[in-house]
Amino acid sequence: MRKPIEGIHHVTAMASDPQANVDFYTGVLGLRLVKRTVNFDDPGTYHLYYGDERGHPGTIITFFPWPGARRGVQGAGQATVTSFSVPQGSLGYWTQRLSRLGVTHEEPRPRFDEEVLTFLDPDGLRLELVAVAADPRSPWEGGPVPAEHAVRGFDGVTLTEWNAHVTEETLAGPLGFRRVAEHGDRIRFEVGAGGPGARVDVLAAPSAVRGHVSAGTVHHVAWRSADEPDQLAWREAVAEAGLYVTPVLDRQYFKSIYFREPGGVLFEIATDPPGFTRDEPVESLGSGLKLPPWLEPSRQQIQDALPPLEVRP
Q1: What is the C-alpha separation between 134 and 193, in angstroms, rounded?
Q2: Element housing 299 (H / E)
Q3: Residue 132 gets which letter from DSSP?
Q4: From CA 34, how far away is CA 41, in angstroms rounded?
Q5: From the CB of residue 120, how many other CB atoms can be counted at a distance below 10 Å?
Q6: C-alpha of 299 from chain center
Q7: H or E stretch including 153?
Q8: Of 156, 168, 236, 297, most Cβ neighbours within 10 A?
Q9: Residue 256 DSSP SS3
Q10: How far from 91 is each of 12, 29, 219, CA to CA, in Å?
């Protein structure tokens, strides 16, 4: 028997300038760079992971930064918003912080029973901070944001769809999500225990342009599975639902399978273990370039092709 999906494992997006990406997610958003590695399928670019102190599932946003990449198009068939959880009462602090640092943002506004602050990263990726009354997750305390206001992890993602019904059939069918709220053209689903990190909103937008993946867009959304046997059970369930699903791929810090839901959003189901401390101690996570064994023979060539990168104080 497969276990229920617990929520979001990670979100992977595309970027352009690697250093600008690090400066924003560590220096502005206050996340920890927990892993610097490369795109295993194309090692000419970094793969950067940001999250809490240990990079727990549900806190990790990752990027493939391609220097000089053109802006993508946010639209139908994509995860168009990535939302993070912050403590209730923190949005005043964040509004002032984003203003002071020159980050494009909107004024906080209500959504369902919470308050939301929307802003853009340097590539135009649409992000949100959601003020949450009860999120027990601990923040990364080594960054520039005071712990009482710091990001706890994901709140959820928003999928923009031409036909919300076909996406709902997959979420509420084989993936086991529950419809919990609806307002206008937005339908909210939760999975597992629900709450922050286990939410997805589907935005019905039949007139939206088709999304195009490049800098400033989400590449895929990954959901959590407990372990490898559980992942194999999920692979079978997805295939039985009539969706093409990849073989299991080794991403070093988790195992992955991928498939597209009928609306076009690329989903992944990733294992919680082994995690980011398999090749670095907690104290030095993200400090050095880590490569999988099959790329180690090319380390010097790979390092020479990558631009320098630093986490600035």
Answers
A1: 13
A2: helix 299-305
A3: E
A4: 20
A5: 16
A6: 27
A7: strand 153-161
A8: 156
A9: strand
A10: 25, 13, 28
Q: Where are the domains of the chain?
A: 8-305
Two structure tokens written together for 141:
């305390």
Q: Give the pair of three-digit tokens for residue 213.
A: 């993946």
For residue 154, which of 73, 265, 56 has the smallest C-alpha distance?
A: 56
Peptide bond into 274 cis (omega under 30): yes
pLDDT in tens, the chain (313 residues): 799 999 999 999 999 999 999 999 999 999 999 999 999 989 999 999 999 999 999 999 999 999 999 999 999 999 999 999 999 999 999 999 999 999 999 999 999 999 999 999 999 999 999 999 989 999 999 999 999 999 999 999 999 999 999 999 999 999 999 999 999 999 999 999 999 999 999 999 999 999 999 999 999 999 999 999 999 999 999 999 999 999 999 999 999 999 999 999 999 999 999 999 999 999 999 999 999 999 999 999 999 999 999 998 7
Give the C-alpha separation, 148 to 150, whole Å: 6
Q: Where does 8-305 sit in CATH, by number?
A: 3.10.180.10
Cα 27 from Cα 68, distance rounded (Å): 22
Secondary structure of residue 44 in the 3-state scheme: coil
